[in-house]
Task: inverse folding
């Protein structure tokens, strides 16, 4: 079902279904999501808050909050191993080692009670089984790699002595310290100043090049996607609604929701014009529309949209979950 | 860390002087005149006056305090009024039993309290949590001397696993030392354990939801390290605060527990000295106990610096 890729597939998420405990019982928040990330590829996973993109990212490493979220069905494959079938012990040897994560909030993602260098060295010691000294040297090395000046001295400092941008660099250093094959970055720039955002994105892309890893970039910001991603998976209300190359997506979106997202991006030279927004809001997991989940907010909705649309190939390498993907001419970003 | 130590010491030392003044002033407040009891059967006023003169009780109060205080600084706590024993000698002969009891009780309180609190926090809303919360409420509510009596009935009289009374010094026989102290330490440690369990549960419930706990899991750390290292260190400050407060109360509790289990500690020395109106002895015991409490609080304050690096630098 996933779009064909030029490279070998590293991560394959297939028909993933995730449920969360709500006041309405177990509600499906990710409904049959499929996509893949190739070796050395940067894939953007895009959607509004509540679209299920973060939950999808957490599911890959089995990090859903215990007792609150659970994977109901589907598979997550890394290389040739089914991650969902791993024991807790086997999963721990994947976490931070083969697959690492960077989170949204750099201010709270580092432990305030431990030195930054020690937090990085801890992961290195755990997965590499090296000596304390070697782990520490590696921590300093990666801090230097992510552009933290005076890395040896700063490794001895605590998170509160780091600025937000520096902390996110430190988180990235921690994530790449064991040279993972896949990095999942969940809104890594959202909490940062705009000037710092660009630096951190550049750093992520640079690390990806240098270490030859794959990146799954979870974001709500299509600007971020345009900057670094090769392929994009757009999620809406727990489903993949569109999936294609970044260039193709920006030029010829094949789903009205993507068109809405693109129109909502602020553009240079659009000063004085009202920013466009998508009317309405994401439906709650317990109140999903019967047919197309976007239909209630969609300006192009017709009677046929009362039936749930399948995710189909609209063009080669371009998937869309819209009944009208071939009749509509949607506006791209340019 | 050295800066923090100096700052806390600068606070603790004047505190110790104030405490010693309060301890000494107790003579004035407590009814009864030691000279009357010392002067023998049916003393006449001259005899009493002579004893008062010999004890320096006719000196102005501040002068009396000065004599005593300078003695304390030299390590001389005075003489017992009724035996020729030096107060310092008596106090230090009794100190090991009380210290053993206090340290063992505090260990019970800390280990049990933190373990129960952490388990409850890891599974909020489950039966583990409910049992722990109920046990903690019960532990806070039940008086420790009653717990002591029940423990003796169950484990010393019915089951005869532990001795009911008595004490063996640690250096003579560590096993007997432990067996003799187990019941009193448990009796004394249960209530503080309950308070610590509540604090731990409250603190850990919040901390376990923090982003850095998820980061630790995402690194691949096993749950024991995530909870026992990354979460616990952040939840520790309210726990050690409760620990410090409970430690002060617990040392007061040793008086009763030492009576109940016939332990030759400071508590029972204080008890007999108070009823004999042996004031130098009472003062000596109180001073050493107060110093102990201040020491525990100093250690608690210093531990804040360990648990929260920001305190170290401010």
Result:
């Amino acid at each position: 079902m996933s779009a064909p890729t030029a490279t070998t597939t590293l991560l394959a998420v297939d028909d993933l279904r995730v449920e969360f405990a709500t006041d309405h019982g177990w509600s499906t928040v990710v409904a049959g999501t499929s996509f893949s990330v190739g070796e050395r590829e940067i894939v953007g996973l895009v959607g509004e808050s509540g679209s299920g993109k973060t939950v999808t990212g957490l599911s890959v490493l089995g990090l859903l909050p215990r007792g609150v979220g659970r994977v109901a069905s589907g598979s997550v494959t890394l290389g040739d191993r089914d991650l969902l079938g791993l024991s807790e012990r086997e999963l721990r040897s994947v976490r931070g080692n083969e697959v690492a994560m960077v989170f949204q909030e750099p201010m709270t993602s580092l432990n305030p009670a431990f030195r930054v260098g020690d937090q990085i060295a801890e992961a290195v010691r755990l997965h590499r089984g090296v000596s304390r000294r070697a782990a520490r040297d590696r921590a300093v090395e990666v801090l230097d790699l992510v552009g933290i000046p005076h890395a040896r001295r700063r490794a001895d400092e605590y998170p509160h002595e780091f600025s937000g941008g520096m902390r996110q660099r430190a988180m990235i250093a921690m994530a790449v310290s064991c040279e993972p094959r896949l990095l999942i970055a969940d809104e890594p720039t959202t909490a940062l100043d705009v000037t710092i955002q660009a630096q951190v994105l550049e750093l992520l892309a640079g690390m990806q090049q240098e270490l030859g890893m794959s990146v799954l970039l979870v974001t709500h910001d299509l600007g971020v996607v345009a900057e670094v991603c090769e392929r994009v998976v757009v999620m809406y209300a727990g489903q993949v609604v569109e999936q294609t190359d970044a260039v193709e997506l920006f030029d010829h979106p094949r789903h009205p929701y993507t068109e809405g997202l693109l129109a909502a991006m602020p553009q240079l030279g659009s000063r004085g014009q009202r920013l466009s927004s998508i009317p309405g809001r994401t439906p709650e997991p317990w109140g999903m529309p019967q047919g197309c989940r976007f239909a209630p907010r969609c300006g192009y909705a017709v009677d046929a949209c009362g039936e749930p649309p399948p995710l189909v190939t609209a063009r080669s390498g371009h998937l869309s979950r819209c009944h009208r993907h071939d009749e509509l001419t949607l506006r791209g970003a340019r | 860390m050295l800066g923090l130590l100096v700052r806390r010491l600068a606070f603790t030392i004047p505190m110790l002087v104030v405490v010693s003044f309060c301890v000494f002033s107790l003579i004035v407040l407590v009814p009864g005149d030691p000279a009357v009891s010392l002067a023998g059967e049916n003393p006449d006023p001259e005899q009493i006056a002579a004893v008062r003169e010999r004890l320096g009780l006719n000196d102005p109060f501040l002068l009396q305090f000065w004599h005593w205080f300078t003695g304390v600084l030299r390590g001389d706590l005075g003489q017992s009024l009724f035996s020729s024993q030096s107060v310092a000698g008596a106090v230090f002969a009794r100190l090991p039993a009380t210290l053993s009891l206090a340290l063992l009780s505090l260990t019970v309180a800390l280990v049990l309290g933190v373990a129960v609190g952490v388990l409850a926090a890891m599974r909020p809303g489950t039966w583990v949590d409910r049992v722990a919360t109920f046990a903690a409420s019960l532990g806070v509510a039940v008086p420790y001397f009653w717990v002591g009596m029940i423990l003796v009935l169950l484990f010393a009289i019915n089951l005869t696993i532990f001795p009911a009374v008595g004490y063996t010094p640690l250096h003579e026989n560590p096993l007997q030392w432990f067996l003799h102290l187990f019941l009193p330490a448990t009796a004394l440690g249960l209530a503080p354990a309950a308070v610590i369990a509540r604090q731990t549960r409250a603190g850990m419930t919040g901390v376990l939801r923090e982003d850095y706990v998820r980061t630790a899991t995402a690194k691949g750390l096993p749950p024991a390290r995530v909870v026992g290292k990354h979460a616990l260190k952040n939840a520790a400050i309210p726990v050690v605060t409760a620990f410090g407060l409970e430690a002060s109360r617990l040392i007061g509790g040793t008086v009763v527990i030492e009576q109940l289990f016939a332990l030759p500690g400071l508590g029972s020395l204080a008890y007999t000295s108070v009823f004999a109106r042996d004031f130098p002895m009472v003062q000596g015991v109180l001073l050493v106990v107060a110093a102990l409490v201040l020491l525990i609080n100093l250690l608690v304050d210093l531990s804040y610096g360990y648990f929260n690096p920001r305190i170290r630098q401010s």
Remarks:
- The radius of gyration of chain A is 20 Å.
- The longest helix of chain A spans residues 194-211.
- The first strand of chain A starts at residue 9 and ends at 22.
